[in-house]
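Attaching the record inline, Q. Sequence:
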Amino acid sequence: MTLIRSILFTLAFYACSTLAVILMLPLLLAPRRWMMGAFRIWARFTIWALEALGGIRLEIRGREHIPTGAALLAPKHQCLFDTIVPFAVLPDGCQVMKKELMKIPFYGWYAAKSRMIVVDREGASKTMRKMLADGKARLADRRQLLIFPEGHRMEPGAAPDYKPGVAALYGLGVTCVPVATNSGVHWPAHGFLRYPGTIVVEFLPPIEPGLKRPAFMRELQDRIETASNALLAEGI
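Structure, as predicted:
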């Protein structure tokens, strides 16, 4: 049954995504908010299809912590689904993306139109300066910056590997909302099998600006890892 559900969801997901990238082409000439609206529709269809076809429901916890204005979000990253959910729940999310993703036809164009923040991992200090400049500009537009603190997908329960980029953005004097999840249990990073159950995305109480970088990183990692491990222990 899991195999059949996974096949049905995968077919629906890629069929919808293919149709979406074609229909979204004219939006390259439209206002940015129209492109963000199209991403929101695509994300919400994916969430619906995941439950209807894959037997995996999404539960959002801590909705009271979802920011409506300028803020920084630091989610645990376990699978592709973690990049989709923010489009469905944030008012005007802006994801920090690696440069390689911009080379993907259509997706790269739409990300540029949406004014996502692009980083070159080989750019060292130059990359950091550009990320901070772009982040400051997006915050001025009252957008919600989203950066995965570990920079890449991690297996559920794996030892954490937090990078300094999130602390640099926090240094802009912005509130940071940690986000925990168990998504990798049901949508593994590799392979196409999707395992029925409940994906929980939990927005945790915000970390107010003003902490020194080492204290911030310790607090952020402790909150995310503690909450994510608790979700894994629920076994849902």
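Residues 17 and 130 are 30 Å apart (CA to CA). The chain has a mean pLDDT of 95.

More tomorrow.
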